[in-house]
Amino acid sequence: KLVKNLVMLSRLDEGMPLPDKSDFSLSDAAWEAAEPFEMRAKAQGKSYSQNIAPDLNMTGDMAAVQQLISILLDNALKYSDDGGEIRLSVCAQHKNKVIEVYNTCPPDSLGDIDRFFDRFYRADKARTCDDSGHGLGLAIARAIAEEHGGTLSAESDETSGTTFTLTLPTAES
User: Do 77 and 86 form a contact (C-beta atoms < 8 A)?
Assistant: First the structure.
């Protein structure tokens, strides 16, 4: 899995386009990607909610966008506090599609938010020796966002949590 992720990042870095771009329902893709996370959150004693606007469509690589959403939700589950809250929002704002993933987290676990998208960066030093990841997920997510002409950013309210925001431009016809 690590090698596969590194190869994908390398291809995106080299400007090699994602191979499977087509028109698809972003709403349906988000529902499919998010489906397993509600049960995982419940099993971990965390609160999960989602608000996915209907009838949102886009052109791109559906599997890559679903991977991006899964990366953000997986990250939210890993780094949210005990009994924490995770929220997914997918909507249209102005001429963009916006995906937001929020999670509560203890303020001392945030790490350096400016480095979240660096390869191999791990905010929680206590997790560096387990097998919960390699610190590539957010780098992959940002590369996928950029390949779709979008931006992926992170903001933290140091008292309650972190929000990752993906903004995707709507193609003009």
Answer: yes
